[in-house]
Design goal:
Strand content: 25-35%
Number of strands: 5
Number of helices: 3
Mean pLDDT: 79
Order of helices and strands: HHEEEEEH
Largest sheet: 5 strands, antiparallel
Distance between the termini: 71 Å
Length: 133
């Protein structure tokens, strides 16, 4: 009985050890964007009307998030979201933007559904750049 339990534990441990490299390889394929690309994404987001580009009132950003890179049908996408205060009196607005990165060009696209369910990370570059202007 003990021998069967030991064999079962070793088999499960071996299966777990074999699964680990595949997970690491997949995570390495989807690396975080470079700091320079993050700055470009933040600058392009701040040029959008939803992010207060034409606001007469000063706006403040906090809790900004960036998801991506997201591979979707051969496209590389980044999703930007934030909490923006200043244009409305009361509840902060929650602007969102989806950007496609292709051939070292960034452009805003209209496809917010692609962002649903993707893990995001803090995006302090947007907070810093948006609050400095």
């Amino acid at each position: 009985m003990r021998r069967a339990a030991l064999v079962l534990v070793l088999a499960l441990a071996n299966a777990g050890a074999q699964a680990a490299p595949r997970t690491a390889k997949r995570a390495a394929a989807f690396e975080a964007p470079s700091p320079a690309l993050k700055e470009r994404i933040a600058a392009l987001a701040l040029k959008q009307v939803d992010f207060g580009a034409v606001s007469l009132l000063p706006v403040r950003f906090e809790g900004s998030r960036l998801a991506g890179p997201i591979e979707d049908g051969g496209r590389t996408l980044y999703c930007v979201s934030s909490r923006m205060s200043g244009r409305t009196f009361g509840k902060p607005e929650r602007p969102k933007a989806v950007m496609r990165h292709q051939a070292d060009r960034l452009e805003v696209i209209d496809d917010e559904e692609v962002c649903a369910g993707h893990r995001s990370q803090p995006f302090p570059e947007l907070d810093a750049l948006g609050n400095a202007r």
